[in-house]
Design goal:
By secondary structure, the protein is of the alpha+beta class. The chain has a single domain, classed as Deoxyribonuclease I, Chain A, CATH 3.60.10. It is 27% helix and 29% strand. It is built from 6 helices and 18 strands. It has a 6-stranded mixed beta sheet. A 6-stranded mixed beta sheet has the order 5-8-9-10-14-11, covered by helices on one side. α5 packs parallel to α6. The longest helix is centred in the N-terminal third of the chain and has 29 residues. About 6% of the residues have low confidence.
């Protein structure tokens, strides 16, 4: 029988800790090398990324230096810096790099997206832009940025939502962006969405989101006319949760998979309204992303990117997204939404 003194035990634990550290150090290069097989696909609602210039064609008066919000160049630059840093970190712990593709919502124009990819966190990555001006009355659009090292755009186009109010007047909203391209030489299709809001009330506005869902279904049918087994990713701020009809009918109609459905809980989501979590920001995809082929991409995991630096750190809204504005009061945060993302693995 062996009897160990306290000193012996301390020495033993020291040796074990050193051996564990050495083992981790020897394994680290191997683990790090594996990250090159993972690619992040993300979506982020940027909460009103407006420039400071007056666009007479849109209602951007709230985002001018002379407005009540005092949207100055300094505040604009601060927001760009924070958003760029955030995007650079999405999925990086697993992939070892910033996202290959990021869909964006609530951008005013191409200029703000260009300024974003020139920000400190993104300027060293070769990001490029797909953007079209939409007819939205507030002047906000969707866009897509992509790392040209991994993704090549072959074509892009937008699809309008033909919505009308109760008086029969056209209700102008964001277009749906379709981008076709090669992700590491594999053909994929990406749809970026920002569906009509719930501002009028959930029940009143639901029909608009159902029409948006129908339009996405039409676009998928359009893609399938020229590609028998297309790999399609549908991302966006849908202003509905994974269990709402606009999402479930789309998933069921086209045999899609929605990994976000398992992420929404009473304590977790991508945005919080009246102390209730929602997951309006989602990424859906065709089930052929589950098919393994060493030369193609397959689905790995889905996440909400809700790192602590993106959260309100105190007060009754502690844990909620750290916003740029609450009403007209400037808070200097990031966005009222957390980004969401999936990892695709190649090989």
């Amino acid at each position: 029988m062996f009897v160990f003194s306290i000193l012996d035990l301390k020495r033993l634990f020291t040796i074990l800790n050193r051996q564990t550290l050495l083992l981790k150090m020897s394994l680290y290069p191997l683990e790090k090398n594996k990250t090159h097989n993972y690619f992040t696909i993300a979506f982020y609602n940027l909460e009103n990324l407006f420039d400071t210039f007056d666009d007479k064609r849109t209602r951007d008066d709230d985002f001018l230096p002379s407005s009540e919000k005092h949207w100055t160049q300094k505040r604009y630059n601060n927001k760009l810096k924070k958003l760029g840093y955030t995007i650079s970190k999405i999925g990086a712990k697993i992939s070892g790099k910033s996202p290959a593709i990021i869909g964006l919502a609530e951008v005013e124009n191409r200029l703000v997206v260009a300024d974003l990819i020139k920000s400190k966190g993104l300027k060293d990555t070769s990001y490029s832009i797909v953007h079209y001006d939409s007819p939205d009355e507030r002047g906000i659009d969707v866009a897509l940025i992509y790392n040209t090292k991994y993704f090549t755009v072959e074509s892009s186009e937008v699809f309008a939502l033909n919505l009308f109010d109760e008086q029969g007047q056209r209700d102008y909203t964001r277009d749906i962006l379709l981008v076709e391209g090669l992700l590491n030489n594999e053909k994929i299709y990406v749809l970026v969405n920002h569906w009509p809001s719930r501002r009028e009330g959930i029940d009143v506005s639901e029909k608009k989101r159902l029409l948006a869902s129908d339009k996405v279904a039409e676009i998928i049918d359009f893609i399938k006319q020229k590609d028998k087994n297309p790999k399609i990713i549908i991302m966006g701020d849908f202003n509905d949760n994974p269990t709402n009809k606009s999402i479930t009918q789309l998933v069921n109609m086209h045999n899609l998979y929605n990994p976000m459905e398992a992420l929404l809980t009473h304590f977790k989501g991508s945005l919080n309204f009246k102390h209730q979590w929602n997951l309006f920001d989602q990424i859906l995809f065709t089930t052929n992303f589950f098919e393994y082929n060493p030369k193609k991409h397959s689905f790995s995991k889905a996440h909400i990117f809700d790192s602590e630096f993106l959260k309100q750190f105190k007060g009754k809204y502690k844990g909620n997204p750290f916003r740029t504005f609450v009403g007209r009061k400037y808070k200097g945060g990031y966005s009222d939404h957390f980004p969401v993302y999936i990892h695709l693995k190649k090989g």
